[in-house]
Write a structure and sequence with these properties.
Helix Hairpins; Immunoglobulin-like
C-alpha cells in the first residue's frame, strides 16, 4: 500500500514517509531550535512550533505512526513490558522501588523538567540515589530510601538516615557491621548509578530545549556528552544544533550542587560516632555511683541533718547571687551602627548599565526587612537587599528569568549590617514571577512589578509564612 501524508506531518518535519525514528528525532530537534518563538521573531513562529510538536508527537510513537500511515501495528520482538514506561516510575515522581527516566522518544507535549521526589520542585540537575537506615534491637533491619532528589533534599535525607542509624543501629551483633557501612555510603552521597544520572540529565536537556531555555539545555547536554552513556552522541548532536542557533560555545556550566563538601562529611561522621561515644560514656559514668559504697567517705557521710541543711541553704544563696550578677552584667549583642539605604544590596550583583526589569518593594510591616530573590529552578539566591520600616525600594535592572521572592522581618540589623539580629517571621510570595523582555518597534519593553510586604485587603497576592531556616538557607 502506498504511504500517504494525510495531515502533512512528514512534510512539516521535512522527512520522507519511510524515515527512521532516529531521522525523525534529529529533524525535530533541528527544527525546534529554528522555530521556537523565543528564538524566531516572526509572527507565525508560535503556530509553527505547535504544529511541529504535534507532528513529532504522532510520528515518534510507533503505534500512533502506524495508525497515521494506515497500516497495522506490528510490535517488534523485543517489545516487552518495561518498568521504565510505567506511569508510576515517571522520573521525578515518587516510586516504591526502582526509579528510572522515561524513554527519550516521549511526546514533547508531556515533557517537563524532572521534579524532586521530596520537595516536588523542578530541579535542573537531579540524581537518582539510595540512602540506607539501620535499626537494631538484637535483630538488625536495613531499609533504603530511594528516589530522584535535588541536592538540598538529598543532603537532608542522608543526614536523617545517618542520625537514625547512629541512634538505633548499634544495638545488635549485625548492627556493628552494617551501621558504619551505611553511614559511609550516606556520607559520600548515597548509592548512585552513572547511567541513571545521565538519563535524568538528558531528559532535562530535552525539556529545557523545548521550553526555549537554550543555555540550560546547552550546559546539561555538555554534561551528558562528557559522560559514558547511550545518550552521549545525541547530546553531541544537540550541542552542534545549539551552536548553529547562536548559543556561544563558551556558555558557562551550571554550578555543581552535588560536589562533596567537608562540612557534610564531618556532620555524617559526628552523627555516626554519637552512638558509640554515648554508650562508652554511659558505661563509665554509670559505674561511678557503685564505687561510692566501697569508699570510707561513704560511711562518714551520715552527719547530723541540721548542719547539712544550713550549708545547703548558704550554697544556694551564693549560687543565686552569682547567677543574678551574671544575668545583670551580660552585654547585649552589638547592632548595625549605620542603617543602609532602602534598596541597598546585601548579596549578589546587578549591572546598572544594561537594560532590564525592575521590582518595587513597599515595607508596610512593623520591622526591618531583608528581601531575597531566588532562581525558581535552581533555588539559588540571585541577590538580596534591605528595606527599612515603612520604606520603599526600587531594585533593578533584573535579567529575564523566573524568580521567587522571600522576605524576613526583624527588629534590628546585626553588627555586619547584612543580616537581621533575629528573624521574627519569614514569608514567601506563592507564585513565581517571570520577567520576559519584548522587542517592540518603539524599543525594548520591560516589566516593573510591585510587592507589598504584608497582606493587602482585596489584593491579588498574599504572602505565605515559611520557616526561618528555609529563608536563611543558601
Amino acid at each position: 500500500m502506498k504511504r500517504q501524508d494525510p495531515r502533512g506531518y512528514y512534510k512539516v518535519l521535512r522527512v520522507p514517509p519511510n524515515a527512521s525514528a532516529e531521522a525523525i528525532k534529529r529533524a525535530f530537534r533541528t527544527l525546534a531550535v529554528e522555530c521556537h518563538p523565543d528564538r524566531n521573531p516572526h509572527a507565525g513562529a508560535s503556530a509553527a512550533f505547535k504544529t511541529l510538536s504535534e507532528a513529532y508527537g504522532v510520528l515518534s510513537d510507533v503505534r500512533q505512526r502506524a495508525k497515521y500511515d494506515g497500516r497495522p501495528f506490528v510490535p517488534p520482538a523485543s517489545d516487552a513490558p518495561d518498568a521504565r514506561h510505567t506511569r508510576a516510575n515517571h522520573p521525578g515522581r515518587r516510586a516504591a522501588d526502582k526509579v528510572e527516566p522515561k524513554d527519550a522518544s516521549a511526546s514533547p507535549s508531556s515533557r517537563e523538567p524532572i521534579h524532586c521526589s521530596c520537595c516536588d520542585r523542578a530541579t535542573a540537575q537531579p540524581r537518582s540515589a539510595s540512602y540506607w537506615t539501620v535499626v537494631s534491637i538484637v535483630i538488625t533491619w536495613r531499609r533504603a530510601t530511594r528516589g530522584v532528589f535535588c541536592a538540598a533534599c538529598a543532603n537532608k535525607i542522608g543526614l536523617r538516615c545517618t542520625a537514625i542509624s547512629a541512634a538505633f543501629g548499634w544495638w545488635g551483633p549485625l548492627g556493628f557491621f552494617w551501621t558504619p557501612i551505611s553511614i559511609y555510603r550516606n556520607a559520600v552521597g548515597g548509592e548512585r548509578q552513572e547511567d541513571s544520572d545521565a538519563d535524568l540529565l538528558w531528559h532535562n536537556a530535552l525539556a529545557f530545549l523545548l521550553q526555549g531555555k537554550l543555555t540550560i539545555a546547552h550546559a546539561l547536554a555538555r554534561q551528558v556528552a562528557a559522560a559514558k552513556s547511550v545518550h552521549a552522541l545525541d547530546a553531541s548532536d544537540m550541542l552542534v544544533e545549539l551552536h548553529r542557533a547562536g548559543v556561544p560555545r563558551d556558555t558557562p556550566s551550571l554550578v555543581d550542587p552535588w560536589k562533596m563538601r567537608r562540612t557534610n562529611v564531618a556532620a555524617q561522621a559526628a552523627l555516626g560516632l554519637a552512638g558509640p561515644v554515648a554508650l562508652a560514656a554511659f558505661v563509665l559514668i554509670g559505674a561511678r555511683p557503685f564505687e561510692a559504697f566501697a569508699t570510707p567517705a561513704y560511711a562518714t557521710s551520715f552527719s547530723p541533718i541540721a548542719p547539712v541543711v544550713t550549708a545547703t541553704k548558704a550554697a544556694r544563696n551564693i549560687i543565686a547571687s552569682r547567677m543574678t550578677l551574671k544575668t545583670d552584667t551580660t552585654p547585649s549583642p552589638p547592632t548595625c551602627a549605620k542603617t543602609p539605604e532602602d534598596g541597598a544590596l546585601i548579596d549578589g550583583r546587578l549591572d546598572p548599565g544594561k537594560p532590564g526589569h525592575h521590582m518595587e518593594i513597599n515595607n508596610g510591616t512593623d520591622g526591618l526587612a531583608i528581601v531575597k530573590v531566588r532562581d525558581s529552578i535552581t533555588d539559588h539566591v540571585r541577590f538580596s537587599f534591605f528595606v527599612k520600616r515603612g520604606g520603599h525600594a526600587t531594585v533593578g535592572p533584573l535579567p529575564d528569568g523566573s524568580y521567587r521572592i522571600q522576605y524576613a522581618i526583624g527588629a534590628a540589623l546585626a553588627e555586619d549590617c547584612r543580616s537581621l539580629l533575629s528573624v521574627e517571621r519569614a514569608s514567601e510570595f506563592p507564585e513565581t514571577k517571570t520577567f520576559h523582555a519584548q522587542l517592540r518597534p518603539t524599543g525594548l519593553l520591560t516589566d516593573t512589578l510591585g510587592f507589598t510586604l504584608f497582606s493587602v485587603p482585596d489584593g491579588n497576592v498574599s504572602p505565605q509564612a515559611i520557616d526561618a531556616r528555609k529563608f536563611l538557607s543558601d
